[in-house]
Write a structure and sequence with these properties.
heterodimer; A: alpha+beta; 5-stranded mixed β-sheet; 5 helices; B: 307 residues; two-stranded antiparallel ribbon; 5 strands; globular
Amino acid sequence: MQAPTPPPPALEAPSPDRSAGTGGTLRVAAALTNARVQVDSSFRGASIVLYGAVFNPTDAPADVVVVVRGPDGPVRLVRKTRQAGVWLNSRPVLFEGAPGFYMTASTRPLGEIANFGELRRLGVGVDHLRIAAPEEARTVTRYGVRDVVVSRLGEDYLDWRRAVIRLREAAALYNSDPAGVRFVDRGLFRAEVELPAVAPTGRYDAQVWLFQNGAPVSVSHLTLTVEKVGIERDIYAFAHERPWSYGLLCVLLAAFTGWAASRVFRRS
Amino acid sequence: MDIYLPIAEVSVNWPVLVLLGAVVGFVSGLFGIGGGFLMAPILVFLGIPPTVAVASQASHVVASSTSGVISYSSQGAVDYRMGGIMALGGALGAIGGVEVFRWLRLLGQADLTVAVSYLVFLGAIGSLMLHESLTQIVRQARGIAAPRKERRRPMWLYGLPLKVRFPKSGLYISAIPPLALGAIAGVLSAIMGVGGGFILVPAMLYVLRMKAGVVVGTSLFQIIITTAITTVLQAGRNQTVDIVLSSLLLFGGVVGAQYGARLSGRFRAEVLRALLAGIVLLVGVYMGLELFVRPSDLFAIAPGIAD
């Protein structure tokens, strides 16, 4: 779908100041049913409802676009190449920061709501989402392994970028739903945020944009926290803070289970 | 019935994991192997990240091998001196192997190395075992006596220094070959998540020519130590051991291993070997296919520096 396009802008788009208006102006307000998602042992992903209201004094139609962006993190990719009949991995290519989760939901397909330049400027839509990449390709060496940092100006940048999006979409981490925002009553809308079980933990930012005549007129910012709780958090913290004791515990547990089983079975 | 694994960070159906542990444990008890080579590919197939699968199942191997060794030990079928020397080699191999695996992971070549290792080692061992055991089965069916085997060990076993007496194995050889064998098993344990029994058992039988009765118990003993060290190292260096995953696997595993060990006495040794060879070969080819089949997506996510 994406034609060869210029790279996305690196600057954060400013929120339109028209949203600061009072009373009679067009604006949007929104909230989440659950702003803290707790990852415990029964976690199988979560579905959070985002609901909101559009204050529209005129009869001109307005569109709502919900963008939820998860914590950024580096992404390393390899490309498989066929050499002498065998599929081998290329050297890893590194994107310095891509959102761990990204979804858009809107009242209509994004292309009908605003033009390409506007969406690109705001970073709204999977095709326009900002993935941090420097202007020049360079090589970083960590622990003796050389990675190529992908460049925004490199000729195969778009292939790599599309691959990040495709792989994340396959894991349900990136998603766009052109009919995800539904008006339940006049001015009252809802959208669902579907977090898969593999969604990263951390702080998520949700933006609710209101568009009219192809231009953003109002935006509302929300935050969502995904965190491990209870035993899941304790185990994770133990494994990362005291990894050696944790490993020892795993082995002792295994050896004890093996010993206990042989005792139980000998008696019976 | 789903449970979220804190380190693997995926949600899985836990009864499936317990059942998987039981089946692999049964196979491991039946054939006297750790069963790791079977477990890792299935876990990856179930959606567990390969690095977590390899590291976590090592503790399952510890558990099923422990209960195996206890039952072999009560029959006096463990040569602790031989096993100890091999375990020393295994420890050195594991330390090197974990570092190599870490480096390969950063290089983005870990999955490739795992595929090649499975194809080469399982393919070779499986073919050899299958050939050997089938020949024997056919001979016995036709009533032909097996040709007198040369019981001579390779001469170089005697030429090396550091000779040690192994009364239980009926050997008086240098400590270097068992040490080297253990080291190979240690490297494989870190890279493939296996105990290395599928390599140790044939090597102990056909190269060292140990007494057949103590081979399995001794290899299990060395596997416990090697995989225990591997587990600690993987947890300490890579933080890839999921205690919830390994607990689920080992609960099923220890029970399965007991039933497997009981049943193994009812089969003829060569039939068991032929069966095991078939499984080994199948897994090796399945894992190796990845190298030759065009991937559905040419791009793949490589594990990061942080995770």
